[in-house]
Amino acid sequence: xxxxxxxxxxxxxxxxxxxxxxxxxxxxxxxxxxxxxxxxxxxxxxxxxxxxxxxxxxxxxxxxxxxxxxxxxxxxxxxxxxxxxxxxxxxxxxxxxxxxxxxxxxxxxxxxxxxxxxxxxxxxxxxxxxxxxxxxxxxxxxxxxxxxxxxxxxxxxxxxxxxxxxxxx
Length: 169
What we know:
Elements: H1 2-16, E1 24-32, E2 38-48, E3 51-62, E4 65-77, E5 83-93, E6 104-111, E7 118-125, E8 135-143, H2 150-160
Antiparallel strand pairs: 1-2, 1-8, 2-3, 3-4, 4-5, 5-6, 6-7, 7-8
């Protein structure tokens, strides 16, 4: 009986937690555990008909050149309240090389204090024939600086063109 009661409480707690507002623009950085390299990272999250969707924009340097990638994300909130972001599709990039099978998974916590809301956690990429798995940390804060966001400029360009991207801002 005690085990059943504990199981019911464990499943009910996430439902009892206050609603998490994760929609909007998030800016910050990712830090690679193996190289120590810090990369700028932006995520835009929207909610349409009760379902979260999003995009990410990542920059990195390789051989002194700066590269970027924009990806569509699958977003879920786990039962334990963790925010889970998974790469779904590479939308645009200027990579000198590419392995389309690389996917990044972010598992983050939402913290809300007197300061700006923050998403912090870990990331991991899958291992492919050409590349090892990478791990690291992600730290993002919610921002209203849409005008200075490279990701928002990309999404606005797509929504004004023939693209099917909706719900920007």
